[in-house]
Design goal:
It is globular, with a radius of gyration of 17 Å. The chain has a five-stranded mixed sheet with strand order 1-4-5-6-7, with helices on both faces. The chain has a two-stranded antiparallel sheet with strand order 2-3. The protein has eight helices and seven strands, in the order H-H-E-E-E-E-E-H-E-H-E-H-H-H-H. 49% of the residues lie in helices and 14% in strands. Strand 6 (124-131), helix 4 (137-145) and strand 7 form a beta-alpha-beta unit. With 216 residues, it is of the alpha/beta class. It has one domain: 3-Layer(aba) Sandwich (Trna Endonuclease, Chain: A, domain 1).
Length: 216
């Protein structure tokens, strides 16, 4: 049976996580001052080349998304993947410490598109925030509140956990149910009413169970 669109996106997220882990190891040996922009440029290009292997449309690295916005401005993203009326936009950050202002800025660009009422009712946009630094709990909660997927090398995204879990393991079903919530894009995420603190706790509980089973 062929892969569904959701399966393909899951594989892309796994590939982005693997790329981030690899880059984090490389960057641990480098200076942290002027390397940030070169990292973001390198990772956006590597992510682009990786995504091109899959049957989805992807814009060249750091392209401007030329769709209507509330402000009338157009915004640039490190990577943009298009799957029908659903967009996945990726922000790559290399920092010694992840700052919440970075995700504020990323989210503001996403919302500028998501809240534009001239879009069709089935328009969706999902943010993916890649960072070599450890993402703090507050940043994770903020990201979950706005349907953004936060990825660092410390905590694997739910898609990676599912990918490494055997099909017969009972925890897989629990992970799949949580993934349905964490995969919610904008503007649906704003209307969901889900509590980001509860989502974060559910993720951490699942991650701990997953680790205890020896998957990490």
């Amino acid at each position: 049976m062929g892969k569904t669109s959701s399966d393909i996106i899951d594989k892309l997220i796994v590939a982005l996580y693997d790329l981030l882990v690899e880059e984090t190891k490389v960057l641990a040996k480098e200076a942290t001052s002027k390397e940030g922009f070169s990292f973001e440029d390198r990772v956006s290009h590597r992510a682009y080349e990786c995504i091109r292997k899959y049957p989805v449309s992807v814009l060249p690295p750091r392209s401007t998304l030329n769709y209507p916005t509330v402000s009338g401005l157009r915004h640039q993203f490190d990577v943009t993947v298009m799957d029908g009326n659903k967009f996945f936009v990726v922000e790559c950050k290399r920092r010694g410490l992840a700052l919440i202002d970075q995700i504020f800025s990323f989210n503001s660009k996403i919302l500028d598109y998501a809240l534009k009422d001239s879009f069709s009712s089935d328009f969706r946009i999902k943010g993916i925030f890649l960072c070599t630094a450890k993402i703090t709990e507050n940043i994770r909660k903020y990201a979950l509140a706005y349907g953004i997927l936060p990825i660092d090398s410390k905590l694997p995204p739910i898609e990676v956990m599912i990918d490494k879990t055997t099909s017969s393991d009972r925890i897989r079903e629990e992970l799949m149910e949580l993934k349905k919530l964490l995969s919610t894009p904008q503007p649906i995420a704003l209307k969901s009413g889900w509590n980001c603190h509860e989502l974060f706790q559910k993720y951490m509980i699942c991650h701990q169970k997953w680790k205890v089973k020896g998957y990490e």
